[in-house]
Amino acid sequence: MHRHLALLSLLCALTACSQDNPVPNTPAAQTPLHAAELEVSFTLKIENLSQETALETGFSPLVWAVAAEDAVLLRAGQPAGQALERLAEDGNPDPLLAALTPALKGKLATALAPGQSSSFSFKAKPGMKLSFASMLAQSNDLFVTPARGQLVLFGASGEPIEPGAIALTIWDAGTEVNQEPGKGPDQAPRQAGPDSGTREQFGVRELAEVQDGFSYPQLSQLLRVSLSHDHEHDDHDDQEHDDYAR
Length: 246
Known about the structure:
Blueprint: H1 2-16, E1 40-48, E2 63-67, H2 82-90, H3 94-99, E3 104-107, E4 117-124, E5 129-135, E6 142-146, E7 151-152, E8 164-165, E9 168-172, E10 205-206, H4 219-222, E11 223-230, E12 244-245
């Protein structure tokens, strides 16, 4: 009972603050249709699977952006920056959303509790990449993105990549000392207030490179993110999605 109450409190707090089988990044087998002019409607579905693990955790409202530029959200080894820090430590998506420069960007309206899912849709052209980030709430400063920070949406021929589950990476923002996942007093469900915890000053690193002495479930057991697209109906209106901001 106490754990369920804690999870409900966490979701309220995060909302108020505002793979095993990855899809290869290869083009779908379709006939080219003037690829340089093609605009495709994509849908991203996010599923919190953590209820099946020892680390039941929420995930903060996801922030996303679509752009041709590289390294929209982060550069490995470089400081996180205040906006990314607020997402990684407190689950607050708003500073990061405001700081992102791409015109096509947005966030999910709410956090995801264990067992919950959500989705959003967007349009993109060849050469564009999808970036997104969401805090692993039962941590001090961990967050999830596509593998290597962003997902290339089109192959070399200009065709959209195959639909399905995408590879993910979990990062340590390097701004707060890690405590035992799911138990630390300075983690979002239990911290006294935003920006609590012992500070550290490292660059953003993949969690696999951080030797904090703690064990974590496989990310594919905690979260599944799947991409689909409607190549045949790319002139139709976008499907409804959460809190779409331009």
